[in-house]
Amino acid sequence: MDTLTTDRVGGLAVRRTGTGEPVLMLHGSGGGLHSLAGLAAELTGFEVWRCARRGYRPSPGSFGRNTFDSEVRDVRALLETVRAVTESDVHLVGVGYGASLALHTAASEPAGIRSLALVEPPVLLAGPHLEAVLTRYRGLVADGDFRAAQDLLSREVDRVPEPLLAALSTLADPDPVRARAGAAGWVHDLEALAGDDADPARWVSLRTQLPVLLAQGAHSREPVPAGMDALAAALPHARRVVWEGQVHGATGAAPAVVARTLREFYSA
Question: What are the CA-CA distances from residue 127 to residues 30, 133, 144, 160 (Å)?
Fold first, then answer.
């Protein structure tokens, strides 16, 4: 395994594993370098690059309020680095928030991107209604009430049903050191989502530019299924895969299944 950092992306922490066609993976909210390690290990025959997005340790935070535009610049710089090292265009994979970022990146400039794989981007969650959630979350974190902060995210962002929320409430309180470190990334993502547009029709420009994969768990909660339906309508050429028996988080729970889907997509 190679572990490296590159100044070209503002010091973002990056890990590179394997050999073959290059794949760049963008993790979701609450993740980091560790998030897609299992998927990277299963995706044999490819050179997989993973980064800790801005706001997620050990990468630095944002300069001011975060936006998708600022993160796209990070991804474009990283894509240029991968292309320079591998002398090849790059398969771009995004998971959750990382899939929304991948959409923004490809729409801004598809050059250098070989294909686009999107795993449950929260396209219908975005919008100014999240400003209130962001304000409340910041306040709870500042007060050190990490249990309430976690509960807020579960209710308002992850849309966890009440019976499961009740079960989660019996768990031990979050470790305050780890929770405070993770909160920086959540604030970062909520800022960008609150400033974003929830209309999936704006991605129609990708119809003829790239091969696109839309993937989701069969039992993922709303608004993920509705968002994936809307994306499929905007991108009718996209290949669509629904993983039976999976909920949100299949990349961690069933990395072999996800890797097989990616391998089939890349060989089509």
Answer: 19, 11, 27, 19
Domain shared by 164 and 260, yes or no? no
List Cα–Cα distances, 217 to 86, 213, 228, 240, in angstroms: 32, 14, 11, 11
Q: Which residues of the chain have pLDDT under 50?
A: 1, 7-8
Domain with 34, as residue range(s), is: 2-124+199-267
SS (H, E, C) 234-261: HCCCCEEEEECCCCCCHHHHCHHHHHHH
pLDDT on residue 208: 79
Please tell me whether residues 34 and 164 are part of one structural domain: no
pLDDT of residue 2: 56
**N residues, the chain:** 268
Q: Name the pTM for this structure.
A: 0.94
